[in-house]
Amino acid sequence: MSSNPTNGGEALVRSLEMQGVDVMFGLPGGAILPVYDSIIESSIRHVLVRHEQGAGHMAEGYAHATGRPGVAMVTSGPAATNIVTPLCDAYLDSVPMVCITGQVPLAAIGTDAFQECDTTGITMAVTKHNFLVTDAQDIPRIIHEAFHIATTGRPGPVLVDIPKDIVDPANPRSKMSWYEPTDADMELPGYAPLTAGDPALIGEAAKLIASAERPVLYVGGGVLKARAAEALLELAELLQIPVVTTLMARGAFPDRHELCLGMPGMHGNYTAVTAMQQADLLVSLGARFDDRVTGKLDGFAPDAKIIHVDIDPAELGKVRQYNVGIQGDCRLVIEELITATRALGADAQAERTQWRSMVSGWQEKFPLVYQDSAPGDRLKPQFVIEQLRDNNPADTILASGVGQHQMYASQYWKFDHPYTWINSGGLGTMGFSIPAAIGAKAGMPDRRVWAVDGDGCFQMTAQELVTATVENIPIKVALLNNSYLGMVRQWQEMFYDERFSEVHLSDTCPDYVKWAEAMGCEAIRVESPEEVAPAIAKANEINDRSVVIEFRTDARENVFPMVPSGKTNSEILVDPSQQGLLS
User: Does 329 share its domain with 443?
Assistant: First the structure.
């Protein structure tokens, strides 16, 4: 250990630099002020947010787009509680993230001091791990451990809570000697994630696949986290097996590929949902049998055997019992599965001509459909998404809020590139889109980034467009304004006898164009179909500031297909125009 004297605040910033952090998102306050003093001299770009929730979602968006851990830093008390939602969001969607929070001085902990809260206690359930630093000398090691935990095994958020006196150069507790920690210095007993799958189990899985007549590759977000998109494509083409990509895995397999069935689940397309129901084998790769995918569990894929591959052993058998369960990194396991499949030979694969014919029949019979706008009607949200898709490069990064617009975006956009779809899956966090898009743009400044948002979501975090303006991180926002909490309205229409309770926001307030302009954005309002493409073209020509297009959409439009809550996937509802085709 070297004897370079420094203080905790400088050591913290230097530790972040050593981890390769190039940008971080945050908001200063009393307990974290000493660290902010050290940031002035740092190479790290700090993005000053307008609300701590925005900092967390920006860190998530950065991580989704780049694959590197996002970093957020806020102060104690209410700042820490404001970032709990992004932490929980990152936890459920396995997003690598490191959050630094300030804390009251060590001696004041437990005294109900100003802006004190039990941050590690509050966040224990929504982080992969968290730390309370009690010795400045531990800072380099703990930061090294935090990034290691966040990015290895099943990725996730890690929080480091740091009392003010540990980082305040005026306090003797802050004095420490700088050192560069290595993996050998880490103190993480029991943490040793397995990455290589068991060869015997992989061989067993290859044989089970070979014997299946109606197999489906069920692909989850873990494939993206493992950077396994290329390996997945090779496996699917080798086996000639259809692929479904969950909401968190959109883009992991190209939508335009002939083997791609699209998204399964509550609002998945008919073919993806039905293929899983009729399968005799589901090969689950980095997916967790989420309730939105399975529907009523005891009716889910009743005849299917299960091969389950996941980096997290806790997921294996948690929801659905497997026939072969393989703990391991998805990319490494898929690569070994390819080798094992090739060793069996092409002749080993079961005859699947009839299966391919069935799947093709469903695709032809039940495509995604919607009714065009009648003269004088408001815009159809599906049409807007199609126009966005067709008037942007294939590698455009698309961030979404939560609700009907999220489902339309996943359904009607064509994701042919990995790491281009950023959304809140597990937690379903309204307000996610705009800060996540800003984080993605900060991490990928040369890429076009669109946020698709609803008016309900927009009103939760729109203030971060001020951040985008002031920090010169221009994004483009497609605001689908139907004046309602759309998904809640849909449920009330379908399942509560059209008893619409507290779902209508306002037809006139706020004025989104004036609001966007006040935040430094170019703003456009679109109300007719012929205006949609020109507005998108205009937005794409503006790159020196953010653009908000308010699309006035039809509130009566519902998302189909739909598996009603509590029903099995076999009870899927298709668009009313197709209902008569169901046998």
Answer: no
What span, in angstroms and rounded, lies between the C-alpha atoms of 329 and 326? 9
Give buried/exposed letters for 119-143 (b at 16+ CB in 10 A, else e). Answer: bbebbeebbbbbbbbeebbbbbbbb
Question: Mean pLDDT score of the chain, rounded to an integer?
Answer: 96
110 and 128 in contact (C-beta within 8 Å)? no
H/E element, 453: strand 449-454
- Same domain? For 346 and 484 the reply is no
Same domain, 390 and 359: no
- What is the number of alpha carbons within 13 Å of residue 13 lying toward its C-beta? 21
Same-domain pairing of 456 and 328: no
Q: Which of 52, 116, 550, 557 is catalytic?
A: 52
Model confidence over 85-142: pLDDT tens digits? 999 999 999 999 999 999 999 999 999 999 999 999 999 999 999 999 999 999 999 9
Instruction: Identify whether 277 is a catalytic site residue.
Output: no
Catalytic (active site) residue 567: no
Instruction: State whether 24 and 169 are in the same domain.
Output: yes
What's 320's domain CATH number? 3.40.50.1220
- The residue type found at 528 is S
Which tokens hold the place of 5?
A: 């004297």
In the annotation, is 365 catalytic? no
For residue 218, the SS3 value is strand
Asked if 487 is an active-site residue, the reply is yes
DSSP three-state, residue 177: strand
- Number of structural domains found in the chain: 3
Q: Which residue among 73, 128, 147, 164 is the active-site one? A: 164
> What is the value of pTM for the model shown?
0.97
CA distance readout (Å), 251 to 66, 419, 478, 488: 14, 7, 20, 27
Q: What is the DSSP string of 243-279?
A: EEE-GGGTTSS-TTSTTEEE--STTS-HHHHHHHHH-
Residue 571 belongs to a domain: no
| pLDDT of 1 higher than 80 | no
pLDDT digits (tens, 9 = 90+) for 388-415: 999 999 999 999 999 999 999 999 999 9
- Assigned domain for 524 exists: yes
Element spanning 99, H or E:
strand 97-103
Place of tokens 């699947």: 352
Catalytic residue among 114, 234, 258, 495: 114
Active site (annotated) includes residue 52? yes
| Domain boundaries, position 33 | 4-185
Is residue 332 in some structural domain? yes
